[in-house]
Specification:
By secondary structure, the chain is of the alpha/beta class. The chain folds into 4 domains: 163 residues; 221 residues, Alpha-Beta Complex (paralog of FGE (formylglycine-generating enzyme)), CATH 3.90.1580; 106 residues, no CATH class; 155 residues, Rossmann fold (3-Layer(aba) Sandwich). Helix content is 36%, strand content 18%. The chain contains 20 helices and 25 strands. Strand 13, helix 15 and strand 14 form a beta-alpha-beta unit. Helix 1 packs antiparallel against helix 5 and helix 8 packs across helix 9. The longest helix has 31 residues. The radius of gyration is 32 Å and the shape is elongated. The N terminus is likely disordered. It binds S-adenosylmethionine.
Amino acid sequence: MSPDDTPSREASEARAIALADRYLAVRRRTESLARPLSPEDQGAQSMPDASPVKWHRAHTAWFFETFLLTPFLPGYRVFDPAFAYLFNSYYEAVGPRQPRPLRGLITRPSAEEVGAYRTHVDAAMVRLLTTSPTAEVIERLDLGLAHEEQHQELILMDLLHLFAQSPLEPAYRETSPPDRSAATGLRYLAFEGGLIEIGDDGPGFAFDNERPRHKVYLEPYRLADRLVTNGEWLAFIEDGGYRRPDLWLSDGWAAINEQGWDAPLYWRREENGAWTVMTLSGRRPVDPHAPVGHVSYYEAAAFAAWSGRRLPTEAEWEAAVRAPEGQELRQTSDEAWQWTASPYGAYPGFKPGAGALGEYNGKFMVNQMVLRGGAAETPPGHTRPSYRNFFHPAQRWAFTGVRLADDMSALDRETATPAATFLEDALAGLTADRKTLPAKYFYDAEGSRLFEAICDLPEYYPTRTETALLRRIAPEIAARVMEGAALVEFGSGASTKTRILLDAMPQLAVYVPIDISRSALDEASEALRRDYPGLVVAPLVDDFTRAVRLPAAARGRPVTGFFPGSTIGNFAPAEAEDFLRGAHGLLGDGAMFVVGVDIAKSPDVLVPAYDDAQGVTAAFNRNVLVRINSELGGDFDLDAFDHRAVWNAEESRMEMHLVSRVDQTAHLAGREIGFNAGETIHTENSYKYAPEMFVELARRAGWKVAARWVSDSPSFGVFALAG
Ligand SMILES: C[S@@+](CC[C@H](N)C(=O)[O-])C[C@H]1O[C@@H](n2cnc3c(N)ncnc32)[C@H](O)[C@@H]1O
C-alpha cells in the first residue's frame, strides 16, 4: 500500500465515531423501550417461551461482552463472572446456563444493576470501537446490533403476553392503534415465477440463514396485495372455522383442541357478544379493517384452506416483493410477520460458522416455519426482503399475520388480456367517424360497484324481474343438471344470481365465474368459497368472447353454462350469434346453457331503466372516460359530457351515449380527439328480443331450445339451450 492509499487519521476517527454512534443509538432504543416499566414489570416471566424484560436487557449486554469485549478489547474486565450463567441464552459452546423457563426466578441482579451492567459494557464498547475497529469487530458489531434489535421486538412481544395475563390488563403505551377504516378491497397480484433467485444480495448486513443466494423455480402464482383482516377472520370464526376438522392440519387440530383455541391469541368475546383484543395500548375493540395478528401457523393454514387459497412459500414472497409488480403489495413489513408455507431449513450450500456464533441460526433449522416481512413493532430498518424469521407452528405470541396466495392456472396465463388492448380499442373507437367505445370497458372495480348499484334502482327492472323468475324456475333447471357438474358463468360480476342456482343445485362440484373485472371476480369468489365450502370455485379473469378452454377443475365434467343479466343484449344480433357459437365450443357437446334475455317492451319502461333519477347510470356511463383518463393518460373533461339513453325502435335496442356539451378537443396517447357540440360517443347497446327472435338466433348458433320461461310484465326471458 502506498502512503497515498492510507486512510487519513481524521477519516478513520470519523468512521470510529460513526460506529460508536450507531452502537449507542441501538442500545438507547432498548433502554427507552424498558423505561415505562417498573422493576416488577421487568422481572416477571409469563410463560417458558417468554423472558423477563430485565433478562433481555442483560442478555444483550452479555452478547457484546462475550463476543466482542472479552476476545477483542485488551484488558477488558467482565462486569460479574456470574452473569455468564444467568444471561447466556442458548450457546452450548459458551457454557451452561439458567434454564429458559426459570428466567423469571432471577430476582438478582435488580433491574437497576442490569442498567449498571449495560453502562459498563457500553463504555467498553465505545473504547473498542474507537481504538481497534477491525473488520472482524465490525462484522460482530453488526451481528450484535441486529441481535439487540431482535430482542427489542421480543421485549414488546413478551411484555404484551405478560400484561395480557394481568387482571388489570395494563396499557404499555397510551397511544391508540392507527385507524384502518380506509382498508380497501383485496386484489391478487399475478407473478410469472420461473427461475428466480432468493437470498441476501448484499451489500449490507444479513444473517447467515439468508445465504447463500440461490436459484429457485416457481410456477406462476398470485399473491394477495394486503394481509388478512380481523373482519375476514371473524367471518372464519362465525363460519365454524375452529370447529371444522376438514380445514386443519392434523397437528393443528390437535393443538386447538388441547389449547381450547377458538380465536386468535388475546381475543375475547365480551358479554354483549363483541370481540375485544389485548394490545400494547390495552384492551380494545377488534378493528375489522386491521390485519389479524397473533395467529399460529396452524390457524393461518386453516384460514387459507377455508378461503380456498393457500399460504405463499418464502421464495414466492421474496420474489414478489423484489419484482416491479410487487410495488403494489401493501403491508409487506410494517404490520405483521407473514407465515409462509416453507419449513425453516438451510439454503443449498449453507454452512454454519465456526464456534459459538455458528449456533446463532443454524441449529434451529428443523420443525419451525418461516415468516417473512416485518411487524409494526419491528425496529425501523431491521428487516429486508431476504429476512427469514421463524417460529414453531403452534406459537402465536409473536407479531404474526397472514397473507394469502393462489396458484395461477395455465389458462389464466394463456388468456390474460394484453394491457395494450384497452388503448388500441379506445383509439380505434374514438377516431372512427361515429365515435364508439366497447361496453366491456365500463367494468373496473368502480364500474362493477356502480353496476351493482344500478341493480338496486327502482327503475332498473331487469335484475328484479330476472331474479324472481330464476327463483321460480331454479328447481326445473336443477333437475337437468347432473351430479358432479360444473357451472360456468359468463360476466358473473358479483355472482348474486348465481346463488339462486347454487342453492338449488347441491350436486354442483365446480363453479367457474368468468369476468373481465378482476376485483369483482376476486370479491365474489372469496365470498362464495366462504358460503359454499364444498364447492370448488375456479375463477377466470378474461374477456368471455375470447375464453377458449375451461380451467382444469371443470374439464371432464358435465357442464352447465349461465349467462344472466341480459348481457347478451350488449352484442349486436350477429355478434350474439358468434358468441353463442363460441360458448358452445367452450362448454362442449352435451352442455346446457341458461341465458337471460330482456324482452322488447315499451320505451316508457325501458328509457328510465337506463336513465335513472339518481344519476347512477350516468356515473356508470362516464366511468369509461374516468378509466381512459386514469389508466391511459387521457384528458377528457368529464363535466363536458352528458349521459343520454335512447330507444332505437328500428334496431330494437336501448342505446347509451356520452354527448359532448360543447365543441372541444380531448387528447389520448398523443392523438387529438375533436368533438362538435352534440356529437356523441356510443358506449352501449342493449338489444331487446321477441322470444321467437331469440329462439331463432340460438338455433342458428347450433343450440336447441330445451325450455324457455318468460316472466309477466315487465317481461324477461330465461332460455335453457341444449347443445
Ligand atoms: C350487465 S353485468 C351482469 C352481471 C351479472 N351477471 C348480473 O346478471 O347481474 C355484465 C358483467 O359482465 C362483465 N363483462 C362485460 N363484458 C365482458 C367481457 N367482454 N368479458 C368478460 N366479462 C365481461 C362485467 O364486468 C359485468 O360483471
